[in-house]
Amino acid sequence: MSSQVPCIECHVPIPLPAPGAGEILSIACPSCATDQEVVPFPSLRRPMEPGRAPALVVAEGEAACFFHPRKKAEVPCDACGRFLCALCDLEMAGRHLCSPCLESARRQGGVSELETRRFLFDSAALTLAVVPILIWPFTLVSAPMALFLAIRSFRAPGSLIPRSRLRSWLAILLATAQIVGWVAILVALLRNRS
Predict the structure, then answer these.
(1) Hey, how many other C-beta atoms are within 10 angstroms of the C-beta on 130?
(2) Which of 60, 74, 104, 176 has its CA 20 to 30 A from that of 154?
(3) From residue 134, how far is each of 88, 100, 170 by CA, in Å?
């Protein structure tokens, strides 16, 4: 199979020689003679594999797909039990799901592989501890909130990307210092009154 890539200047397809995977190729466009470097990945040379076509129901009484009654059922949905053909079977984390159940699980957060965002309590706590320092009276309210969020971050699910707990500890340290500062100010004010 001859692989081709388009020229970056004139967009004419350029045939690639057969290198090893990840090898950098220096090629010239046959049309405009522009020198180009190409790093072909193994999948560029691999032929596309066709999807498996669902089998048709042959005998009466044979299990059929819930969504395609003329196609043979391969597996039941692990969430709702509907029979699914090869086309409707969506395998996720070792479970076989139909599309409505997968969408429902995505909305409810039941499939962690589909989670694309997560609230980061440690970052919120650090922000609440640092930003109000610029306008110091706000620290009276933000410091206890930052302390609460920082402590809660130890029990909450972490980031999708592994991170250290440094942000939480910094937020605890700053929020505690701010609270101690406010207590010291209040004690000093009360002593001056008496």
Answers:
(1) 15
(2) 104
(3) 56, 49, 17
pLDDT band per the 50, 70, 90 thresholds, residue 1: very low
* Domains held by the chain: number: 3
Same structural domain, 111 and 137: no
pLDDT at 111 over 80: no
For residues 110 and 130, membership in a common domain is answered with: no
pLDDT band at 48 (very low <50, low <70, confident <90, very high): low
Q: Are 35 and 52 in contact (CB under 8 A)?
A: no
- Of 178, 180, 83, 95, the closest CA to residue 135 belongs to 178
- Take residue 172 and report the two structure tokens written for it: 């605890």
How many residues does the structure list for the chain?
194
Q: Could you list the residue range(s) of the whole structural domain that residue 87 is in?
A: 51-115
User: How far, in Å, are 79, 97, 111, 114 from residue 103 at the CA level?
Assistant: 12, 10, 10, 10
Enter the pTM of the model: 0.46
Closest-CA residue to 55 (of 33, 75, 30, 37): 75
The span from the CA of 192 to the CA of 186, in Å, is 10
CB 3 within 8 A of CB 21: no
Rounded-to-integer distance, Cα 183 and Cα 194, Å: 17
